[in-house]
Amino acid sequence: MPEHGRGSVARLGRRVAALVIDWLLCELIAFAFLGFRPGSGTGSWIPLVVFAVENLLLVGTWGSTVGHRLLGMRVIRMDGLPAGPVPGLVRTVLLCLLVPALIWDRDNRGLHDKAAGTVLIRL
Predict the structure, then answer these.
(1) What is the C-alpha to C-alpha distance for residues 86 and 67, in angstroms, rounded to an integer?
(2) CB-based contact 51:92 (threshold 8 Å)
(3) d(CA 40, CA 50)
(4) How many angstroms separate the first and last alpha carbons of the chain?
(5) Whole-prediction pTM
């Protein structure tokens, strides 16, 4: 993979920005449709469930979440093919656990991506 530009591994700043976009969108969906109220303490897990569903469905089929797409990124397998449902599931479960996403290797791939055999690249 190239070190910079199109096809390179997405850097931390873009990843965090996409995560914030996705999380805010999931909180908005949870608030508008599922009865989630920030700060109420009840149902605080609802945005995480929405986040998991968003990641599972969109990464597993489309190759990117809304945040990824807005910031020009896509999840692919290491062989260059689309992520697909099984790697999307592995990546989503580990991403929701948070710790694997906070640890990455020298190639800037999080443990969730390594376990799923995927990489988040720039478009």
Answers:
(1) 21
(2) no
(3) 18
(4) 12
(5) 0.92
Angle at 88 between CA 57 and CA 58, to 5 degrees: 25
What six digits make up the tokens of 91?
A: 């990546």
pLDDT, tens digit, 9 for 90 and up, residues 40-87: 777 789 999 999 999 999 999 999 999 999 999 999 999 999 999 999
Distance between CA atoms of residues 111 and 104, nearest Å:
6
Q: Specify the DSSP class assigned to residue 110.
A: B
Distance CA 24, CA 30 (A): 10
* Percent of the chain at pLDDT exceeding 90: 79
In whole angstroms, what is the distance from residue 119 CA to residue 33 CA? 32
Strand partners, 120: 75
Residue 66 contacts residue 58 (beta carbons within 8 Å) = yes
